[in-house]
Design brief:
Blueprint: H1 6-12, E1 19-21, H2 34-43, E2 51-55, E3 58-59, E4 66-69, E5 77-80, H3 82-90, E6 94-97, H4 105-118, E7 122-129, E8 144-152, E9 154-161, E10 183-187, E11 192-195, E12 199-204, E13 210-217, H5 222-232, H6 237-240, H7 249-266, H8 271-281, E14 307-310, E15 316-319, E16 323-328, E17 331-336, H9 340-346, E18 352-353, H10 354-361, H11 367-379, E19 383-385
Antiparallel strand pairs: 1-11, 2-3, 2-6, 4-5, 6-7, 7-13, 8-11, 8-13, 9-10, 9-12, 14-18, 14-19, 15-16, 16-17
Helix pairs in contact: 9-10
């Protein structure tokens, strides 16, 4: 965000307007260097459309740069063909790879930190191009996005929004934007860009290499809250009961009044807080296995110098008089209140040494009890050796 304060961004930029954050060349190079991309393409079987090529607004047929091979067991899997793939790229195609946070550790670590701070699920897609064409026509996305220019540069044209806060599966599409952009600039190596959902844009290569990451996330909306309320209403027999389709008009009006009363009972002043807390508590755990120790009865290495990390960046901790409850990955775990300092430290999402957690718990909990607590979190898929 620098030089913009994070609070300024959240208060006056997010969801309202695009913003460019200039940076020094190489600022993001460690996230996804070309060598790492080459390794990912070589070592992973990436099905279409997760890996795809785009050119002049169209998707390049996958069969023109892949072949299906049959392993000794299981179904056919795709194999990239180097020569036709690179020929497409030389001719101006853009390479797109979705969900790279599942493939590259530095991107995974960044994703976890952002999910912790933004309180929303995050996905990172990669775009690489060399030509002078554009991979996609002018379009808008149904998610907010940060763009990190890893290498090279690209020309961006921002056309603004024509419908405030459009949604996926909206009741009508946004009108087309004016032909002339409201902003046109070159995104350089080390620059970052924020684009809110619904803001039309198009991106063009300029005959030079370009590699950027798009970090997408969907802030919670009122529609999400209403969908959540609908699930909460399942506990109420009035909402599970059949509608009086064949009843009298009076019966239907009475039933409608009962439903209205049930909905209004849930629309308390804290309904937004309750919804967001529940949304965070159901955020899925990131995948990190922690072998070989996680597959043993010890669960952790014997050395307390090892660091562990909570795998649910949006977990919620509730303190009661004698207990503390961890809400994570859709489950509820209750511990004695003495576990509070350890769980609070883990909630930051950053790797923390076991010895530091043991020290935090003293003198209430001893070392063996702290390690047993960590082991329980490992067995639940909520914690792993960092």
């Amino acid at each position: 965000m620098a030089p913009l304060e994070v609070s300024q961004f959240l208060g006056s930029v997010q969801g309202q307007s695009h913003h460019r954050f200039p940076g020094t060349a190489g600022r993001f190079s460690s996230l996804m260097p070309w060598s790492t991309l080459n390794t990912v393409l070589r070592q992973h079987r990436l099905d279409f459309p997760r890996l795809r090529l785009a050119m002049d607004g169209d998707v390049v047929p996958a069969h023109t740069y892949t072949e299906m091979v049959t392993p000794k067991r299981g179904p056919q899997i795709p194999k990239l063909l180097s020569a036709p793939l690179t020929e497409h790229l030389r001719n101006g195609a853009t390479l797109v790879l979705d969900a790279v946070q599942e493939l590259v550790d530095p991107v995974a670590d960044l994703t976890a930190r952002l999910e912790h701070d933004l309180r929303e699920r995050v996905q990172v897609n990669l775009y690489a191009g060399w030509g002078k064409t554009h991979g996609f026509d002018v379009h808008w996305d149904d998610h907010d996005a940060f763009i990190l220019q890893i290498s090279g540069r690209k020309r961006w044209r921002i056309h603004g929004a024509t419908r405030p806060s459009p949604l996926h599966r909206d009741v009508e599409p946004p009108p087309q934007p004016p032909a002339e952009p409201i902003a046109e600039f070159m995104l350089e190596d080390g620059d970052a860009l924020y684009v809110p959902r619904g803001h039309w844009h198009d991106v063009s290569a300029i005959g030079e290499e370009s590699l950027h990451l798009t970090i997408g996330f969907n802030p919670a909306t009122g529609v999400d809250l209403v969908n959540w309320l609908a699930d909460q209403l399942r506990v109420d027999e009035r909402f599970r009961r059949d509608l009086p389709r064949f009843g009298t008009e009076s019966a239907r009006h009475t039933h409608a009044a009962e439903l209205k009363a049930g909905i209004e009972a849930l629309l308390t002043p804290d309904v937004v807080d309750r919804f967001l807390t529940d949304r965070d508590a159901h955020g899925p755990a990131h995948t990190r296995i922690g072998l070989p120790w996680a597959a043993t009865s010890d669960l952790l290495p014997p050395q307390d110098t090892v660091a562990v990390q909570l795998l649910t960046p949006r977990a919620v901790l509730r303190h009661q008089d004698s207990t503390v409850t961890l809400l994570a990955a859709g489950s509820r775990f209750t511990f004695a209140a003495a576990a509070g300092p350890v769980l609070s430290a883990l909630l930051s999402g950053t790797p923390t040494a076991v010895e530091a957690l043991v020290e935090m718990a003293e003198p209430t909990l001893d070392r063996d009890t702290v390690r047993a607590l960590l082991g329980e979190l490992i067995t639940q898929g909520l914690l792993a050796v960092a």
